[in-house]
Amino acid sequence: MSVPARDSKSETAKASHRTGEKSQKANNTFDSGYFFIKTADAKTTKRIQVNKEIPQIVIEVNVPLNKIKELEQIIDKIKEVNKGNKIVISIIIGLNAPVDKFDQHSPSDINEYKTKDLRKKVESKLQGLEGPATKLISYLEREDTKNGLNGVLGTVIPYVWTSTNTQPQTEGQAVSYNYPFFDGRSLLTLDDGAQYVYKSLDGASIAVRGMDIDVINDPLLDVANIDKVKILIKSLASGEFNIFTGGYDWDMNDERLDDKQKDIVANINKYETLLRIALFKSNPAYVYFPEPNFYSDLSTREIGAEKLKNFSGEARTEKVQQGESYFYTNEDLIKKYGSAFKTTKPLKTYFENIFAVIKKLCKNQGDNRYKLDKSSFIKEISKVIEDVRQSHMSWANVNRNIKNMNTNNMPSSSEQDEIKKTIDEHRIKCAEEIYNTLFNQE
């Protein structure tokens, strides 16, 4: 995927968005290649006043209809953080649902929007978001004066979506990432409801946080980190840097894991962080800025959202929308990485394959026909680590980051060799520690 560069036309986005001139209009029906979306009128909090003298941060998050409980937990944490009056967190919510359980329709049905059955399903599903959206606004506005908790400035943008992607990406591969990430992210910034929040904060020092609903133990939502967050907001709002991330760990405390598996995940997390630090020190463009933990100044967020919305050509009609953060990151931006702001994400299903391969390797050690010496065993583990998607312990992943975040200054062959060497060293060390964990060696 080739990401369009930040250009002079995009630099006008900040002023136009502030007036709502380019925002997405309510009741919008639009087709974006393999995805179809329809939005309803956004619902906004009406009684919330914020002190613009206090640094502000706005969370943008898409929330499936079945994840409202998780969202309410995040809102509760926001109220606790805001209670200290050192920073104020607001939130823009994209409350969404697929049109039906299959999430898919033929391109002719979607693009022409003709079939009565489909129209009925779309309108019915959109109507079904009305009640939950209204309740969420009430939850945001709810105060607890006894405990000093105030309401939260926010908006809820209801939308339904469906995919025309009825074919696997490649032969034998199931349809994956079947969700309009590009359009979902852009709505959170450009929709009229989103602009209500940003206009309410006009004149304040503002930073924006892109978040996923499934983050765990997020530093932004921990009252112990308020002073650090305050500094981060001021740095972004003042232009000291434009984008920031702390990356993320995989959840090593997943209750499905045994002790050995927890240690495997812990080691992968450890060396992923160490490698991110090493790569960022060499060149910030070598490090991926993941969507679940992406901070930026408001102008950068608006420009990136506009590029997501307007992106056309081959990538726009791909069957999978992913890698949204590439639209917000370019080589002309000042980047910052800080592992103290790591969030945590749930384990993905591909870890099951990683555990299965390692389990088989361990079992084979008891059979002389398949037994491997330590060096060979570690090499096999090293190969498995490369299967962790988005991990920097894979040259293929890092190379993709470099290509998508650099338009003019690609590393030379010798520089690429150094990057590969750094990646290999960290991956092998990770594999060695996993081996020592498996066989109780120091």
Could you characterize what this model shows?
This protein has two domains: 9-247 and 289-337, no CATH class; 249-288 and 345-442, no CATH class. 42% of the residues lie in helices and 15% in strands. It is built from 14 helices and twelve strands. Strand 4 (56-64), helix 2 and strand 5 form a beta-alpha-beta unit. The chain is globular. The model is unreliable at 2-27, 110-114, 168-176 and 312-317 (pLDDT under 50).
How many beta-strand elements?
Answer: 12
Number of domains: 2
Shape: globular
Low-confidence stretches: 2-27, 110-114, 168-176, 312-317
Alpha plus pi helix count: 14
Order of helices and strands: HEEEEHEHHHEHHEHEEHEHEEHHHH
Please describe the biggest sheet, giving its number of strands, its sense, and whether it closes into a barrel.
Answer: 10 strands, mixed
- Output the radius of gyration: 23 Å
Mean of all residue-level pLDDT scores: 84
- The proportion of residues in beta strands is 5-15%
Structural class: alpha/beta
Helix content: 40-55%
Distance between the termini: 44 Å
Task: Kindly list the characteristics that best describe this protein.
single chain; 442 residues; alpha/beta; 2 domains; 10-stranded mixed sheet; two-stranded parallel sheet; 12 strands; globular; disordered N terminus
Q: Gist?
A:
42% of the residues lie in helices and 15% in strands. By secondary structure, the protein is of the alpha/beta class. It folds into two domains: 288 residues, no CATH class; 138 residues, no CATH class.
